[in-house]
Specification:
The structure is a homotrimer of 143-residue chains. The first copy, chain A, has 143 residues and is α+β, with helices and mostly antiparallel strands. Chain A is 21% helix and 36% strand. Chain A has three helices and eight strands; from the N terminus they run E-E-H-E-E-H-H-E-E-E-E. At the A-B interface, strand 3, strand 4, helix 2, strand 5 and strand 8 of A face strand 1, strand 3, helix 3 and strand 8 of B.
Amino acid sequence: MTLQQVTFTLPAYPRGFHLITEAVLRHIPHMPHTGMLFLFLQHTSAGIVVNENCDPDVLHDFESVFNVLVPENMPFLKHVLEGPDDMPAHIKSVLTGHSVSIPITNHRPALGRWQGIYLCEFRNHAHGRTVVASVLGHTVNDH
Amino acid sequence: MTLQQVTFTLPAYPRGFHLITEAVLRHIPHMPHTGMLFLFLQHTSAGIVVNENCDPDVLHDFESVFNVLVPENMPFLKHVLEGPDDMPAHIKSVLTGHSVSIPITNHRPALGRWQGIYLCEFRNHAHGRTVVASVLGHTVNDH
Amino acid sequence: MTLQQVTFTLPAYPRGFHLITEAVLRHIPHMPHTGMLFLFLQHTSAGIVVNENCDPDVLHDFESVFNVLVPENMPFLKHVLEGPDDMPAHIKSVLTGHSVSIPITNHRPALGRWQGIYLCEFRNHAHGRTVVASVLGHTVNDH
């Protein structure tokens, strides 16, 4: 059993939900036969989740609904110096989560047919986001 | 240290929150003395979480409150072809999460006294949902 | 590769979001060079998340926004015998999550510069909350 880590920075994405399955997996070329893939985002105003990988309208609707769930400019907010998108971004990041844990089967992430990995960018003008990928498993070199 | 995986499909549940602790654990008869249990749902319109295991009213209230948090027929939605319950189901699935990570202690999930595992079924008419269970630990056969 | 567990109880915190990074890490003195830290809260009306570690106003705003997201005294709730804060606490606990998975690099949690660990206490009058910490990794004694 081994645990290998790779840290990489995704390109900057505009505000919204983005399918990053391939952008993530190109940083993890060798997966064990059986294992776990843990992705951890080192940021507090973005999220990483697994959801629908096919229809771009789903990504659009995620952004719309999250903006209704956590509107900007709520009058009682105190943390406002970093802009009206900042505190809502922290809240949204907690609602989505900052990490995912995906099983690895037959050297591939065991995602369902319709599942992909999303980066949820909640800031208006963000830099690239850094991800720590940890790959746990048997026979990393058996491929 | 070993990592073992088992994939199984739960029976179809009606829309709502359902306690599935026993339905899950019957698929994992042998747990290590000390380890981790990772459950991953291979779907994008259902969730899996840990919460209160005792009062059925809690399950009822979860369904009611999630329907208020993410109502159907929001007029700005674009992904509507699969029915009014579909896009809200994707949103709810991200809010609850699609996976849980539970420590294993003394060959049992180290759940708190009031904790159970829920399947959150967000579609009106779903088929059975498939779960990948990964069991990490020492001395799997020491039981 | 080893997996070590320690179970500890945090002191009671008042309702709200609290930075507990140091309170957690003092229970885990020896981390492996490379690994994973899994924290699991054995409760159903509190949460554990990772978010901004610097400005106390952020913690205040989290409490405010979560109270808007899941208000008390929704008239359709059935699980009300444990007080108006109880059922909302269960919902909030599912929205935040009850566990975090953090990579370990160079014997330290690989948190981003602005990331800290929060306890989210959703009850008005809670006792101390119990956490199971599982530390997975190579060379636990190599420090």
